[in-house]
Write a structure and sequence with these properties.
The structure holds 2 protein chains of 2 kinds. Chain A is an alpha+beta fold. Chain A has helices spanning 8-19, 21-25, 82-87, 123-129, 131-138, 158-161, and strands spanning 48-50, 109-110, 116-117, 145-147, 153-155. In chain A, helix 4 packs across helix 5. Chain A is extended, with a radius of gyration of 20 Å. Chain B is of the alpha+beta class. Chain B has 2 domains: 32-88, no CATH class; 98-313, Alpha-Beta Plaits (2-Layer Sandwich). In chain B, the strands form 5 sheets. A 4-stranded mixed β-sheet of chain B has the order 10-2-12-11. In chain B, strands 1-8 form a two-stranded parallel sheet. Chain B has a two-stranded antiparallel sheet with strand order 3-4. Classes of the chains: A alpha+beta, B alpha+beta.
Chain lengths: 186, 315
């Protein structure tokens, strides 16, 4: 059936407009302290729903459990978060934690403009640099969607597949090879 | 000419004495064979179901006849596998032309799709082992080169350096050579573009397998090895219902899923999102986005098969 629904990109933009009024205003305030639980965001035609929450390590969120108030904003090696510092490989020459994580409000991220972004919408942060991938992702072509090809879909955040601290794809073990014809019993 | 004094070793001279007497207790050879053949025919018919034997082609069946056949298949399969097996006959939706995109710049050759397909579509597991998807490993230096492709690669981690991976499955051609060669019309093109097989009409001659340039069709050389615990009971008549021995099968774009609006199993499992599926007639679909913006090619284009399966490079 030819559906009359809008282009997925347009639909997603509608989601963004509905779900994040703060983004439009690009101001520092907004509904930023949403808990990163599986959140359902529907566009006006009910096409897209968000799938997974960001894959936090156990017990690491909310960050404000430990980080309260502003910290020292100078770049340095920390005495904690060893695991993340060791693997950090995402333009590490030029960037460090507080280029993405917000210093004042620890439970959110921020864009280069300073506008806050909840963890559940981290794709907006990724899209600042990776515009071509972001464009494809909004159309459902970078990354994947599951569900209905003609209706409700579930989508994945960038960070559900890429480790934001070390985003390059790591190899995976393949499934067993098929049996050769001569290996099958008669 | 036969030299004089020698005769050809032919039938004995017909004489009154050689003709067998019309004795009912000692039937002649022809009489015996006639009776025996008739008996065998009846026996084999009752084994496969006399109704199945005399049924008409799927396209000639009335709704009632089809419903009876489907009910019989459901009953048999439910008994055999001990679960409630449903056999859908959902037809193609109007305004839908399926197409499939596979991103060669993303595929890592992990074969998750192969096994998701086996599970979804009730393929025979070990003897014979039937996979509808074959993942070919190729060298980047050579490009798409079937002569040097390897389907049996083994590695600790994929992708292996210097290699790329090209999964091949049924291309659902718009101009399908397999359909042309089928002598009994057991395989055909559906209105939404899926090329299907009626397993109850296939005679197992395998002409379609010889005709397919993609090697996409598989033959059940033996009774399919499908453990009841792993059997997927949600089936379609033209798709993943259990197959008998001696018929051909192949990818149907997961007809039982896609006709119900779902993505195929291989699309859902792919860990790198290399597989795209949708309706070519929907301008907002993912597949249209791919067709309009990415570098797309079809495999063995020169054969004019016009596949619905497109390979593309997203980057």
């Amino acid at each position: 059936m030819i559906t009359t629904r809008t282009h997925p990109a347009a639909a997603l933009l509608a989601v963004l407009a509905l779900g994040a009024p703060a983004a439009a205003a690009a101001s520092g305030s907004g509904p930023a302290e949403q808990a990163p639980e599986p959140r359902q965001v529907k566009d006006p035609e009910g096409d897209l729903i968000q799938a997974k929450p960001p894959p936090f390590s156990d017990g690491i969120f909310p960050c404000s459990q430990c980080h309260q108030g502003k910290g020292d904003p100078t770049r340095r090696t920390l005495g904690f978060h060893d695991e993340i510092q060791e693997q950090f490989d995402h333009d590490s020459q030029n960037r460090w934690c507080l280029d993405c994580h917000d210093n004042a409000r620890r439970d959110v991220l921020h864009l280069s403009s300073g506008a806050e972004v909840p963890f559940t919408e981290s794709y907006r942060l990724c899209g600042q640099c990776h515009g071509d991938k972001y464009r494809d992702w909004r159309a459902g072509v970078h990354g994947k969607r599951i569900g209905h090809w003609d209706g409700q879909k579930t989508y994945f955040l960038c960070v559900n597949c890429h480790n934001p601290h070390s985003p390059r794809f790591k190899g995976i073990a393949p499934e067993p090879r098929p049996r050769r014809p001569e290996e099958m019993k008669r | 000419m036969t030299p004089p004094g020698r005769s050809l070793p032919v039938l004995p001279q017909a004489s009154g004495e050689d003709v067998p007497a019309a004795d009912p207790s000692r039937p002649g050879r022809r009489q015996f064979l006639r009776t025996a053949l008739g008996g065998c025919a009846v026996a084999s018919l009752s084994a496969c179901g006399i109704e199945d034997f005399f049924r008409k082609h799927l396209h000639e069946l009335s709704k009632d006849e089809l419903a009876r056949i489907v009910a019989r298949i459901e009953k048999k399969a439910s008994q055999k596998y001990g679960k409630n097996v449903t056999v859908s006959t959902a037809a193609a939706r109007p305004g839908v032309q399926f197409a499939y995109g596979l991103d060669l710049s993303r595929c890592v050759g992990c074969r998750r799709c192969v096994y998701a397909c086996v599970k979804e579509n009730n393929q025979s597991r070990q003897n014979p082992q039937i996979h509808w998807i074959k993942v070919l490993e190729m060298e980047k230096a050579r490009g798409v080169d079937v002569a040097h492709a390897d389907a049996y690669y083994e590695a600790e981690k994929v992708p292996r350096p210097g290699h790329f991976y090209m999964p091949v499955q049924c291309h659902q051609c718009r101009n399908p050579p397999c359909v042309k060669v089928c002598p009994v019309k057991a395989t055909w093109k559906e209105p939404d573009g899926i090329v299907v097989v009626d397993y109850d009409w296939c005679i197992g001659c395998r002409c379609c397998m010889a005709a397919c340039p993609y090697g996409a069709r598989r033959f059940n050389w033996a009774e399919p090895d499908l453990p009841a615990s792993e059997m997927n009971p949600v089936t379609h008549y033209l798709g993943n219902r259990p197959r008998p021995r001696g018929v051909v099968e192949k990818c149907t774009f997961c007809i039982q899923r896609t006709r119900a609006g779902l993505y195929p199993a291989c699309v859902e499992i792919c860990p790198v999102g290399a597989r795209k599926f949708g309706n070519l007639l929907d301008p907002g679909s993912e597949i249209r986005y791919v067709m309009e913006r990415k570098r797309v090619f079809v495999f063995k284009e020169e054969l004019n098969t016009e596949p619905r399966f497109y390979y593309f490079y997203a980057t």
